[in-house]
């Protein structure tokens, strides 16, 4: 996997193809929608790109950590939509082509919808105003039904475009910034319960499309098993996803923790992001 710093300070990640992958229905080469490298222009160009890379699919970012949406949608907050019908039609064509089409989808880091719908959907401060993190970005609160339904509707639209795998980022509560200013006093469920409810509702919404649900987690979270601040609880998350992506120096330890958390239900596929090729499922990180 390679990382490059974008002009707005965010880090964009691109994964190298992996011909040793053992699960044919997971993506092995990833390309993003916005910026360079651009997505192939059409199905023949995609086929040529994938063949040259020895890859079986592509991934593009459809929603980022500001809440921007990179496909045309009547659901998305108007100012958040950063793509028109031409770009959206390109996605439809590529999703219908040979190979796995996966969407990289940020869940709750959102500065657009949260600002407009503070009491109904946002994480708010004790004074009732929307909370902001150290980047001055806002967050949606998974415990609020309107927040969950907004995110789920966007995810369904990705499935309707033809994406076969949805890789969730920041399926969590914020863990940095002035957290003491947040008011959770009116929440009727715990953070972990809210995230589990979201994933349960999302799985049900995606089921008619057959879309696989994957999640990006940190190695620290996986090995610890849970994190009170983020609300992420491995035992609650693992049974609700088809695959887990994580950067790790000890894939065996991570697999063991995922298997233990999954119990009799069986562990999801684990795709480690490592600096050197490994056995089974892996993505190679550039030095």
Describe the structure.
The protein has 287 residues and is an alpha/beta fold. 30% of the residues lie in helices and 16% in strands. It is built from nine helices and nine strands. The protein has helices at 43-53, 85-96, 113-116, 118-121, 145-161, 191-206, 219-224, 234-237, 251-262, and strands at 2-5, 11-14, 57-63, 100-106, 165-169, 212-216, 243-247, 269-274, 283-284. Strands 3-4-5-6-7-8-9 form a seven-stranded parallel beta sheet. The chain has a two-stranded antiparallel ribbon with strand order 1-2. Helix 5 (145-161) runs parallel beside helix 6. The radius of gyration is 18 Å and the shape is globular. Residues 1-24, 28-36 and 283-287 have low confidence and may be disordered.
Q: TL;DR of this structure?
A:
The chain is an alpha/beta fold.
Large-scale geometry: globular
Helix-residue proportion: 25-40%
Can you count the helices? 9
Low-confidence parts? 1-24, 28-36, 283-287
N-C termini distance: 9 Å
The profile of the biggest β sheet is: 7 strands, parallel
- H and E string: EEHEHEHHHEHEHHEHEE
Radius of gyration: 18 Å
Structural class: alpha/beta
> What amount of the residues lies in strands?
15-25%
Mean pLDDT, to the nearest integer, reads 83
What is the strand tally? 9
What oligomeric state do these chains adopt?
single chain
Spatial strand sequence of the major β-sheet:
3-4-5-6-7-8-9
List keywords for this structure.
287 residues, alpha/beta, seven-stranded parallel beta sheet, two-stranded antiparallel sheet, 9 helices, disordered N terminus, disordered C terminus
């Amino acid at each position: 996997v390679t990382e490059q710093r974008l002009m707005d300070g965010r880090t964009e990640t691109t994964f190298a193809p992996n011909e040793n992958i053992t699960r044919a229905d997971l993506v092995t080469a990833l390309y993003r929608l916005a910026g360079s490298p651009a997505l192939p222009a059409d199905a023949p160009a995609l086929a040529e790109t994938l063949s040259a890379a020895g890859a079986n699919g592509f991934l593009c970012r459809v929603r980022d950590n500001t809440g921007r949406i990179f496909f045309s949608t009547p659901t998305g907050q108007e100012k958040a939509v950063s793509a028109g019908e031409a770009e959206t039609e390109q996605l439809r064509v590529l999703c219908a082509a040979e190979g796995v089409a996966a969407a990289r989808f940020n869940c709750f880091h959102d500065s657009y919808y949260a600002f407009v719908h503070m009491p109904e959907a946002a994480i708010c401060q004790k004074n009732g105003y929307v909370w902001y993190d150290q980047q001055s970005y806002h967050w949606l609160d998974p415990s609020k039904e309107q927040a969950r339904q907004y995110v789920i509707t966007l995810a369904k639209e990705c499935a309707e475009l033809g994406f076969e795998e949805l890789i969730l980022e920041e399926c969590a509560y914020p863990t940095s910034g002035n957290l003491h200013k947040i008011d959770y006093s009116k929440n009727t469920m715990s953070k972990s319960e809210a995230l589990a409810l979201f994933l349960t509702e999302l799985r049900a919404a995606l089921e008619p499309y057959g879309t696989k649900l994957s999640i990006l987690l940190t190695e620290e979270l996986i090995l610890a098993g849970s994190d009170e601040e983020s609300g992420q609880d491995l035992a609650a998350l693992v049974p609700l996803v088809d695959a887990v992506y994580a950067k790790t120096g000890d894939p065996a330890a991570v697999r063991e923790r995922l298997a233990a958390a999954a119990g009799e239900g069986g562990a999801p596929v684990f795709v480690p992001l490592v600096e050197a090729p490994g056995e089974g499922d892996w993505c190679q990180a550039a030095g």
